[in-house]
């Protein structure tokens, strides 16, 4: 049985202001009604847009349902490794794919980085697969396709939970982005879509359904549209919004772009 309740954030309890108090709240865990997950994560994304993705990843290991590979051997000279790059990591190494990876679109690849061992998610076709293993050389993996084995591992049946958490966080971050200016039409578009996805989450059957997946895909498109518009230059030639806020939202947008493909609606009996 999946642990229910709440997931602790990495920096819970720091600070005393209203934004810090919002950020220190515990993230609702799998088993919480999806509309409540969305609302809590929306507040988090609005309070801490710069840390929204790290908070999401520290709370849950979203890639746990994917087929995970193992390093091909224990030789420190050939252990998979990743070096930081702007917006992600460059990944190289050799792995042994699990039998479950046969025919899978995506695979989860653990690798060493300075200070930890995150899990990188790539399309299986991006590597060279042979009888002796699976190889990658210098593949860039964006931050939004990186998970953390230190978070609570999700199950296949938790896919709608991950959709709700990421979508809520993205909407909160986008609302914060718009609060930095006066783009009325974008705010109205975002509010309409926010109400639509929240309503669908509230009325969806327990555990979600395929119509919810369609709604999440639509919501992701709207949030990307908002971010894209905010990257445009104003009359003075400067970006319409602080570049730091736009950049901070990139991992969430990357994840949401593929969320329902990475974590599809669970089949009957999925655990």
UniProtKB/TrEMBL annotation:
Region annotation Disordered: where it falls in the sequence: 1-32
GO MF term list: oxidoreductase activity, acting on the CH-CH group of donors
InterPro entries: AcylCoA_DH/oxidase_NM_dom_sf (IPR009100)
Name of the protein in question: Acyl-CoA dehydrogenase
């Amino acid at each position: 049985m999946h642990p229910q309740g709440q997931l602790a954030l990495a920096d819970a309890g720091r600070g005393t202001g209203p934004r810090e108090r919002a950020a220190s709240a515990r993230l609702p865990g799998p088993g919480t009604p999806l509309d409540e997950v969305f609302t809590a994560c929306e507040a988090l994304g609005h309070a801490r847009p710069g840390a929204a993705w790290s908070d999401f990843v520290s709370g849950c290991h979203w890639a746990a349902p994917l087929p995970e590979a193992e390093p091909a051997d224990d030789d420190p000279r050939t252990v998979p490794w990743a070096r930081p790059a702007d917006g992600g990591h460059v990944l190289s190494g050799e792995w042994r794919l699990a039998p479950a990876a046969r025919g899978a679109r995506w695979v989860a690849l653990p690798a060493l980085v300075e200070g930890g061992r995150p899990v990188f998610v790539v399309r299986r076709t991006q590597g060279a697969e042979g009888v002796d293993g699976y190889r990658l050389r210098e593949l860039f993996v964006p931050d939004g396709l990186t998970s953390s084995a230190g978070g609570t591992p999700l199950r296949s049946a938790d896919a709608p939970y991950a959709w709700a958490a990421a979508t809520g966080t993205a909407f909160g971050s986008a609302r914060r982005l718009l609060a930095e200016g006066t783009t009325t039409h974008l705010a109205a578009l975002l509010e309409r879509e926010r109400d639509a996805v929240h309503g669908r989450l509230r009325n969806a059957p327990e555990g979600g359904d395929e119509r919810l997946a369609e709604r999440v895909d639509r919501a992701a498109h709207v949030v990307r549209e908002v971010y894209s518009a905010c990257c445009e230059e104003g009359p003075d030639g400067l970006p319409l919004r602080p570049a730091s806020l736009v950049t901070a939202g990139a991992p969430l947008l990357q994840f949401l772009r593929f969320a329902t493909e990475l974590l599809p609606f669970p089949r009957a009996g999925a655990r």
